[in-house]
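note to self — DONT lose this again. spent like an hour looking for the file last time. sequence + predicted structure for the chain T wanted, 93 res
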Amino acid sequence: MDRLRAARARRPQRLCLPAFDGKPASAGNGTMISFVAPSKDAVHKAHQAALANGGMDEGGPGPRPADSTTFYGCYLRDPTGNKICVYAKGPFV
């Protein structure tokens, strides 16, 4: 079972969930692309690169929720409006 769990962790995942705001899913609402970063520093660098290339901030780098020690991420939109999350998994101290 542990080998199966580890294999799943390395593969891209696809999740289908309702839009967070309860409105109908559409381009930019109810769709999000997520990227796993190797560190908190990589989350910051991805956020800076996105903003430098026409992206829009939707939530700067930080823990989610604010007191989390296991999730650190940022949210943004690319120049065409696609929602993107870049995150790192901890534990972080």
